[in-house]
Design brief:
This protein is of the alpha/beta class and 190 residues long. Helix 3 links the parallel strand 2 and strand 3. Helices cover 35% and strands 25% of the residues.
Length: 190
């Protein structure tokens, strides 16, 4: 049976679980990380080799506020639980704070996409996998998908295309580049 690695953009998944597939009380749906990637692998008729989750710890200033401390503590518990899972890698970028032209703070992830692309290529070049599942909507991944396909790796994109186009969770370029595509359904998250 083919081996598959699941590469998950946590930012995209957070949007989906909050806005596209929330709980009945409108709270964000929780992902069962010991089940979710296995379900995706099974749908692709492959054995799960490893899951990679790409995210950033919350912003933590030099003199953290109470809110920053609480968010960091919550994230640390989440990260610790994930690190206990077998066949699972938590890959972390960093969150950079900046200010827009009006002086309002905003945040941007740094390094996350590069980590994902590097991991995908490493798995392909080591021949550790025959298939890759990509959970992302970022067209920046088109070149790495092409490279994987050139190495003989079958790439399946898991995506979500809303009817109203209000959620930024779909890239036509990425959709067209992948070998196969599976649209997320509610049962993927149950």
């Amino acid at each position: 049976m083919d081996k598959v690695a699941v590469f998950v953009d946590a930012g995209m998944l957070a949007i989906l679980t909050k806005y596209a597939f929330p709980n009945t009380d409108e709270t964000p749906r929780k992902i069962k990380w010991d089940v979710f990637p296995k379900k995706l692998a099974q749908e692709c008729n492959a054995e799960l080799f490893r899951t990679y989750l790409y995210t950033c710890p919350p912003y933590h200033s030099s003199y953290p506020t109470i809110d920053e401390k609480e968010r960091k503590a919550s994230y640390d518990r989440f990260a610790h639980a994930l690190r206990q899972l077998k066949q699972f890698q938590l890959r972390e970028g960093r969150l950079r704070k900046y200010y827009d032209v009006k002086g309002n703070p905003d945040f941007i992830q740094k390094g996350v996409d590069v980590l994902l692309a590097i991991d995908m290529l490493k798995m392909a070049l080591k021949s550790a996998i025959q298939k890759a599942i990509l959970v992302s909507s970022d067209s920046d991944f088109v070149p790495v998908v092409r490279a994987l396909r050139d190495e003989g790796i079958f790439v399946n994109l898991y995506y979500y295309k809303p009817d109203d186009n209000k959620l930024a969770c779909y890239s036509q370029d990425l959709f067209e580049e992948c070998d196969d595509r599976t649209e997320f359904r509610l049962d993927h998250f149950e």
